[in-house]
Please model this.
Amino acid sequence: MNLDDELRALGRSAVVPPVDPELTAAVLTRVAAVPVRRRLRDRWRAFLAGLCVLLAGLALTPPVRATVAEWLRIGGVEAHPVGTGPSTAPPVPGVPGRMSLEEAARVAGFTPALPRELGTPKGVEASPGFVALGWDGVRLEQFRSTVDPVYWKKNYTALEYVPAVEGYWFGTPHELVLVDKRIVRIAGPTLVWERSGVTYRLETADKADAIRLAAGTS
Model:
């Protein structure tokens, strides 16, 4: 197959999300300025234009970003699609610790954020760089986003991008795995987002509740 045939096949198979026409024009203008030999110019322009527009669409379209994030990192969490996942999960686990928020902040090395509408948590646990807070049916973990991830999440369907918090909703039960590959437990629906160098995992059954609580966490 020659280059012309390869480019045609690529064009037929590529699924490109909608892109702003002004962005497309800007990309084509940049491509036109690329110095190449005359006999290859048209072929390379077509190839580079298609590739740049595709990449631009991937960068700008939230649903596509969600698909890409299924195998990338979200703060201190890495998401790994590995096929079908668990069909059920136990109730959201409580937090048995009874630390004060002040003590948790000293141990963790940062001040934990709280969902405003939930008030004082019923349970508080902390370790260096990590805090877990619990209410009835809600568990909020927060930890420093470091060079290495803290958790892997495995076995789930497609992630859903949540623009309100620039995070991702894991809507189905999934394995929660520490970086040393120990399975911690099967986790239920969870919202994951990152803010100011801290990763948040808010585990609760209802997506709307999770988004509202996350938006009000400070």
Notes: Helices lie at 3-13, 21-32, 38-60, 62-69, 101-108, 207-215. The mean pLDDT is 79. The radius of gyration is 22 Å. The chain has two domains: 3-60, 71-215.
